[in-house]
Amino acid sequence: MMRREAGGKRWERLARPPALLDLERELVVLRLYRGYLPPNLHDRPLLTEDDLLLGVHALEQMLPPDLADALQSALLRHPALLVGLSMFSWDHRMLLYRLFGSQALPPGSLAVVEPGGQQECGLWEEGRGLPGKAPLRNVFEASGEVLTALLEAQGSGGRTS
Question: How far is CA 100 from CA 16, 19, 75, 157, in A?
Answer without folding.
Answer: 25, 24, 7, 33
